Protein backbone atom coordinates (compact mmCIF):
# COMPACT_ATOMS: atom_id res chain seq x y z
CA UNK A 1 0.00 0.00 0.00
CA UNK A 2 2.84 2.36 0.88
CA UNK A 3 4.75 1.45 -2.27
CA UNK A 4 1.68 2.19 -4.39
CA UNK A 5 1.23 5.57 -2.71
CA UNK A 6 4.91 6.39 -3.35
CA UNK A 7 4.56 5.48 -7.03
CA UNK A 8 1.61 7.84 -7.42
CA UNK A 9 3.24 10.73 -5.59
CA UNK A 10 6.61 10.48 -7.34
CA UNK A 11 5.15 10.44 -10.85
CA UNK A 12 2.70 13.35 -10.93
CA UNK A 13 3.92 14.42 -14.35
CA UNK A 14 3.04 11.19 -16.16
CA UNK A 15 1.51 12.28 -19.45
CA UNK A 16 -1.57 10.53 -20.78
CA UNK A 17 -2.25 10.12 -24.44
CA UNK A 18 -2.76 13.59 -25.90
CA UNK A 19 -0.32 15.33 -23.53
CA UNK A 20 -1.20 18.80 -22.28
CA UNK A 21 -4.07 19.29 -24.72
CA UNK A 22 -5.57 15.94 -23.75
CA UNK A 23 -5.26 16.91 -20.10
CA UNK A 24 -7.10 20.19 -20.67
CA UNK A 25 -9.88 18.31 -22.46
CA UNK A 26 -10.17 15.84 -19.59
CA UNK A 27 -10.19 18.68 -17.04
CA UNK A 28 -13.06 20.27 -18.98
CA UNK A 29 -15.11 17.14 -18.11
CA UNK A 30 -16.89 16.59 -21.44
CA UNK A 31 -18.75 13.63 -19.88
CA UNK A 32 -20.67 16.17 -17.79
CA UNK A 33 -22.02 17.84 -20.91
CA UNK A 34 -24.81 15.27 -21.05
CA UNK A 35 -26.53 17.34 -18.34
CA UNK A 36 -26.89 20.17 -20.84
CA UNK A 37 -29.46 18.15 -22.78
CA UNK A 38 -31.86 19.85 -20.35
CA UNK A 39 -31.86 22.83 -22.73
CA UNK A 40 -34.22 20.74 -24.90
CA UNK A 41 -36.84 20.52 -22.14
CA UNK A 42 -38.50 23.83 -23.01
CA UNK A 43 -38.64 23.19 -26.80
CA UNK A 44 -40.01 19.69 -26.16
CA UNK A 45 -42.84 20.78 -23.88
CA UNK A 46 -43.65 23.68 -26.21
CA UNK A 47 -44.00 21.34 -29.20
CA UNK A 48 -41.14 23.08 -31.04
CA UNK A 49 -38.71 20.22 -31.69
CA UNK A 50 -39.77 20.12 -35.34
CA UNK A 51 -38.89 23.80 -35.77
CA UNK A 52 -35.47 24.02 -37.44
CA UNK A 53 -34.68 27.48 -36.07
CA UNK A 54 -35.62 26.43 -32.53
CA UNK A 55 -33.38 23.36 -32.80
CA UNK A 56 -30.52 25.53 -34.05
CA UNK A 57 -30.94 27.94 -31.14
CA UNK A 58 -31.17 25.01 -28.70
CA UNK A 59 -27.95 23.59 -30.15
CA UNK A 60 -26.25 26.96 -29.61
CA UNK A 61 -27.53 26.99 -26.02
CA UNK A 62 -26.14 23.47 -25.50
CA UNK A 63 -22.72 24.41 -26.86
CA UNK A 64 -22.61 27.70 -24.93
CA UNK A 65 -23.58 26.07 -21.64
CA UNK A 66 -21.07 23.27 -22.15
CA UNK A 67 -18.22 25.73 -22.69
CA UNK A 68 -19.17 27.92 -19.71
CA UNK A 69 -19.59 24.87 -17.45
CA UNK A 70 -16.16 23.59 -18.49
CA UNK A 71 -14.72 26.97 -17.55
CA UNK A 72 -16.14 26.50 -14.06
CA UNK A 73 -14.76 22.94 -13.78
CA UNK A 74 -11.27 24.15 -14.67
CA UNK A 75 -11.40 26.98 -12.13
CA UNK A 76 -12.73 24.67 -9.42
CA UNK A 77 -9.95 22.11 -9.94
CA UNK A 78 -7.30 24.85 -10.05
CA UNK A 79 -8.51 26.31 -6.75
CA UNK A 80 -8.78 22.89 -5.08
CA UNK A 81 -5.51 21.53 -6.50
CA UNK A 82 -3.81 20.98 -3.11
CA UNK A 83 -6.85 19.35 -1.54
CA UNK A 84 -7.34 17.15 -4.61
CA UNK A 85 -3.74 15.94 -4.41
CA UNK A 86 -4.47 14.60 -0.93
CA UNK A 87 -7.64 12.82 -2.11
CA UNK A 88 -7.39 9.11 -3.09
CA UNK A 89 -9.19 9.55 -6.43
CA UNK A 90 -9.25 13.28 -7.18
CA UNK A 91 -5.45 13.32 -7.24
CA UNK A 92 -5.72 11.67 -10.65
CA UNK A 93 -7.44 14.72 -12.12
CA UNK A 94 -5.22 16.39 -14.75
CA UNK A 95 -4.55 19.55 -12.74
CA UNK A 96 -3.93 17.77 -9.44
CA UNK A 97 -1.70 15.22 -11.20
CA UNK A 98 0.44 17.99 -12.65
CA UNK A 99 -0.50 17.23 -16.25
CA UNK A 100 -2.12 20.65 -16.60
CA UNK A 101 -0.28 23.45 -14.75
CA UNK A 102 -2.52 25.75 -12.72
CA UNK A 103 -1.75 28.87 -14.82
CA UNK A 104 -2.63 26.93 -17.98
CA UNK A 105 -5.89 25.84 -16.34
CA UNK A 106 -6.88 29.45 -15.68
CA UNK A 107 -6.01 30.46 -19.25
CA UNK A 108 -8.04 27.53 -20.60
CA UNK A 109 -10.94 28.51 -18.33
CA UNK A 110 -10.88 32.02 -19.78
CA UNK A 111 -10.85 30.62 -23.33
CA UNK A 112 -13.80 28.34 -22.61
CA UNK A 113 -15.69 31.21 -20.98
CA UNK A 114 -15.13 33.58 -23.89
CA UNK A 115 -16.12 30.86 -26.33
CA UNK A 116 -19.33 30.22 -24.41
CA UNK A 117 -20.13 33.94 -24.29
CA UNK A 118 -19.59 34.26 -28.05
CA UNK A 119 -21.84 31.30 -28.83
CA UNK A 120 -24.47 32.47 -26.33
CA UNK A 121 -24.53 35.94 -27.88
CA UNK A 122 -25.16 34.34 -31.28
CA UNK A 123 -28.36 32.82 -29.87
CA UNK A 124 -29.81 35.66 -27.78
CA UNK A 125 -28.89 38.22 -25.15
CA UNK A 126 -31.31 36.50 -22.75
CA UNK A 127 -29.22 33.33 -22.95
CA UNK A 128 -26.15 35.42 -22.25
CA UNK A 129 -27.76 36.67 -19.03
CA UNK A 130 -28.54 33.11 -17.91
CA UNK A 131 -24.96 32.05 -18.66
CA UNK A 132 -23.65 35.01 -16.66
CA UNK A 133 -25.82 34.14 -13.66
CA UNK A 134 -24.73 30.50 -13.83
CA UNK A 135 -21.03 31.37 -14.03
CA UNK A 136 -21.15 33.88 -11.18
CA UNK A 137 -23.10 31.55 -8.88
CA UNK A 138 -20.80 28.62 -9.65
CA UNK A 139 -17.72 30.78 -9.14
CA UNK A 140 -19.06 31.67 -5.69
CA UNK A 141 -19.46 27.93 -5.08
CA UNK A 142 -15.83 27.33 -6.03
CA UNK A 143 -14.59 30.16 -3.82
CA UNK A 144 -16.26 28.97 -0.64
CA UNK A 145 -20.04 28.68 -0.83
CA UNK A 146 -19.68 24.91 -1.25
CA UNK A 147 -18.68 24.77 2.42
CA UNK A 148 -21.93 26.42 3.56
CA UNK A 149 -24.74 23.99 4.48
CA UNK A 150 -27.97 24.40 2.49
CA UNK A 151 -26.33 27.01 0.26
CA UNK A 152 -24.28 24.28 -1.43
CA UNK A 153 -27.41 22.20 -2.06
CA UNK A 154 -29.24 25.14 -3.60
CA UNK A 155 -26.31 26.13 -5.82
CA UNK A 156 -25.82 22.64 -7.23
CA UNK A 157 -29.57 22.30 -7.81
CA UNK A 158 -29.65 25.72 -9.48
CA UNK A 159 -27.20 24.43 -12.07
CA UNK A 160 -29.84 22.00 -13.40
CA UNK A 161 -32.58 24.63 -13.22
CA UNK A 162 -30.50 27.20 -15.11
CA UNK A 163 -29.83 24.66 -17.86
CA UNK A 164 -33.57 24.29 -18.39
CA UNK A 165 -34.04 28.06 -18.26
CA UNK A 166 -31.23 28.46 -20.80
CA UNK A 167 -33.21 26.34 -23.24
CA UNK A 168 -36.14 28.72 -22.98
CA UNK A 169 -33.97 31.84 -23.10
CA UNK A 170 -31.96 30.65 -26.09
CA UNK A 171 -35.02 29.67 -28.13
CA UNK A 172 -37.32 32.49 -27.04
CA UNK A 173 -39.84 30.08 -25.50
CA UNK A 174 -41.61 31.44 -22.37
CA UNK A 175 -41.48 29.12 -19.36
CA UNK A 176 -44.53 28.45 -17.20
CA UNK A 177 -44.49 28.52 -13.41
CA UNK A 178 -45.20 24.77 -13.43
CA UNK A 179 -42.16 24.08 -15.61
CA UNK A 180 -39.92 26.06 -13.26
CA UNK A 181 -41.37 24.42 -10.13
CA UNK A 182 -41.01 20.88 -11.44
CA UNK A 183 -37.49 21.52 -12.74
CA UNK A 184 -36.35 23.38 -9.64
CA UNK A 185 -37.62 20.94 -7.03
CA UNK A 186 -36.70 17.97 -9.21
CA UNK A 187 -33.13 19.26 -9.24
CA UNK A 188 -33.13 19.68 -5.46
CA UNK A 189 -34.56 16.17 -5.09
CA UNK A 190 -31.67 14.64 -7.06
CA UNK A 191 -28.98 16.71 -5.35
CA UNK A 192 -30.28 15.97 -1.84
CA UNK A 193 -30.51 12.29 -2.77
CA UNK A 194 -26.88 12.23 -3.90
CA UNK A 195 -25.75 13.93 -0.70
CA UNK A 196 -27.84 11.51 1.37
CA UNK A 197 -26.15 8.57 -0.38
CA UNK A 198 -22.73 10.02 0.47
CA UNK A 199 -23.72 10.44 4.12
CA UNK A 200 -25.02 6.86 4.27
CA UNK A 201 -21.78 5.56 2.74
CA UNK A 202 -19.79 7.53 5.30
CA UNK A 203 -21.86 6.16 8.18
CA UNK A 204 -21.60 2.56 6.95
CA UNK A 205 -17.96 2.43 5.86
CA UNK A 206 -16.25 5.54 7.20
CA UNK A 207 -15.33 6.52 3.63
CA UNK A 208 -13.86 9.97 3.17
CA UNK A 209 -16.40 12.68 2.31
CA UNK A 210 -16.18 16.43 1.82
CA UNK A 211 -16.06 18.45 5.03
CA UNK A 212 -19.29 20.34 4.27
CA UNK A 213 -21.27 17.08 4.24
CA UNK A 214 -20.32 16.40 7.85
CA UNK A 215 -22.52 19.35 8.79
CA UNK A 216 -25.59 17.45 7.57
CA UNK A 217 -27.40 14.57 9.19
CA UNK A 218 -28.99 11.72 7.26
CA UNK A 219 -32.40 12.60 8.70
CA UNK A 220 -32.12 16.21 7.50
CA UNK A 221 -31.20 15.19 3.96
CA UNK A 222 -34.09 12.69 3.95
CA UNK A 223 -36.37 15.56 4.88
CA UNK A 224 -35.03 17.71 2.03
CA UNK A 225 -35.38 15.10 -0.70
CA UNK A 226 -38.79 13.94 0.55
CA UNK A 227 -40.10 17.51 0.64
CA UNK A 228 -38.66 18.22 -2.80
CA UNK A 229 -40.25 15.07 -4.22
CA UNK A 230 -43.62 16.03 -2.80
CA UNK A 231 -43.56 19.55 -4.24
CA UNK A 232 -42.29 18.25 -7.58
CA UNK A 233 -45.04 15.64 -7.91
CA UNK A 234 -47.75 18.08 -6.86
CA UNK A 235 -46.53 20.71 -9.32
CA UNK A 236 -46.37 18.20 -12.15
CA UNK A 237 -49.86 16.89 -11.40
CA UNK A 238 -51.27 20.43 -11.37
CA UNK A 239 -49.57 21.12 -14.70
CA UNK A 240 -50.93 17.88 -16.18
CA UNK A 241 -54.51 18.70 -15.17
CA UNK A 242 -54.24 22.30 -16.25
CA UNK A 243 -55.91 23.35 -19.52
CA UNK A 244 -53.37 24.72 -21.96
CA UNK A 245 -53.83 26.00 -25.49
CA UNK A 246 -52.20 23.81 -28.11
CA UNK A 247 -52.54 20.56 -26.17
CA UNK A 248 -55.74 19.07 -27.54
CA UNK A 249 -54.83 15.60 -26.34
CA UNK A 250 -54.60 16.71 -22.72
CA UNK A 251 -55.72 13.27 -21.56
CA UNK A 252 -52.17 12.12 -22.33
CA UNK A 253 -50.71 14.65 -19.93
CA UNK A 254 -52.94 13.19 -17.23
CA UNK A 255 -51.82 9.69 -18.19
CA UNK A 256 -48.20 10.84 -17.92
CA UNK A 257 -48.69 11.42 -14.19
CA UNK A 258 -48.63 7.66 -13.57
CA UNK A 259 -45.17 6.83 -15.01
CA UNK A 260 -43.82 10.12 -13.64
CA UNK A 261 -44.84 9.37 -10.06
CA UNK A 262 -43.78 5.72 -10.24
CA UNK A 263 -40.40 6.77 -11.67
CA UNK A 264 -39.88 9.23 -8.80
CA UNK A 265 -40.75 6.51 -6.29
CA UNK A 266 -38.43 4.08 -8.04
CA UNK A 267 -35.60 6.62 -7.92
CA UNK A 268 -36.41 7.19 -4.24
CA UNK A 269 -35.64 3.50 -3.58
CA UNK A 270 -32.05 4.13 -4.63
CA UNK A 271 -31.97 7.27 -2.51
CA UNK A 272 -33.34 5.50 0.56
CA UNK A 273 -30.79 2.70 0.24
CA UNK A 274 -27.99 5.21 -0.04
CA UNK A 275 -27.14 4.15 -3.60
CA UNK A 276 -27.99 7.39 -5.40
CA UNK A 277 -24.86 8.51 -7.22
CA UNK A 278 -24.93 10.67 -10.31
CA UNK A 279 -28.49 10.72 -11.77
CA UNK A 280 -27.25 9.64 -15.20
CA UNK A 281 -25.47 6.63 -13.69
CA UNK A 282 -28.65 5.47 -11.95
CA UNK A 283 -30.68 5.89 -15.12
CA UNK A 284 -28.20 3.82 -17.12
CA UNK A 285 -28.18 0.85 -14.74
CA UNK A 286 -31.85 0.73 -13.65
CA UNK A 287 -33.87 -0.98 -16.42
CA UNK A 288 -37.19 -0.42 -14.70
CA UNK A 289 -36.45 3.28 -14.39
CA UNK A 290 -35.56 3.39 -18.08
CA UNK A 291 -38.89 1.78 -19.04
CA UNK A 292 -40.78 4.22 -16.84
CA UNK A 293 -38.88 7.10 -18.38
CA UNK A 294 -39.78 5.93 -21.88
CA UNK A 295 -43.43 5.54 -20.89
CA UNK A 296 -43.46 9.05 -19.44
CA UNK A 297 -41.73 10.55 -22.49
CA UNK A 298 -44.06 8.63 -24.79
CA UNK A 299 -47.18 9.94 -23.09
CA UNK A 300 -45.85 13.50 -23.22
CA UNK A 301 -44.98 13.03 -26.89
CA UNK A 302 -48.53 11.87 -27.57
CA UNK A 303 -49.93 14.90 -25.73
CA UNK A 304 -47.72 17.43 -27.48
CA UNK A 305 -47.27 16.05 -31.00
CA UNK A 306 -50.23 13.80 -31.82
Describe the protein's architecture and organization:
By secondary structure, this protein is mostly helical. The chain has 2 domains: 19-174, UbiA prenyltransferase (Tetracycline Repressor, domain 2); 176-306. It is built from 14 helices and no strands. α9 (177-205) packs antiparallel against α10 (218-241) and α10 (218-241) packs antiparallel against α12.
Task: List key phrases describing it.
disordered N terminus; 2 domains; 14 helices; Tetracycline Repressor, domain 2; mainly alpha; 306 residues
CATH-defined topology of the largest domain: Tetracycline Repressor, domain 2
Radius of gyration, taken over Cα atoms and rounded to an integer in Å: 21 Å
Number of strands: 0
Helical stretch tally: 14
Q: Can you summarize the main beta sheet?
A: none
Report the uncertain regions. 1-17
The amount of beta strand, in percent, is under 5%
What's the structural domain tally? 2
Shape: globular
Distance between the termini: 61 Å
CATH homology group of the largest domain: UbiA prenyltransferase
Helix-strand category: mainly alpha
Secondary-structure element order, N to C: HHHHHHHHHHHHHH
CATH architecture of the largest domain: Orthogonal Bundle
Indicate the percent of residues in helices: over 70%
At the first level of CATH, the class of the largest domain is Mainly Alpha
Amino acid sequence: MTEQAEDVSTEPQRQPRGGLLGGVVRAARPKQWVKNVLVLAAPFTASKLADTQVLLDAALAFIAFSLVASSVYLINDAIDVEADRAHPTKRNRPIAAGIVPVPVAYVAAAVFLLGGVAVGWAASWQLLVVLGVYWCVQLGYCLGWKHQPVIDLCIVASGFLLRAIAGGAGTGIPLSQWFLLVTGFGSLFMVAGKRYAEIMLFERTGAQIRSSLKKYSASYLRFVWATSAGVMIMSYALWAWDTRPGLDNSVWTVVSIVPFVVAVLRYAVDVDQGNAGEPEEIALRDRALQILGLAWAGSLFAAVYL
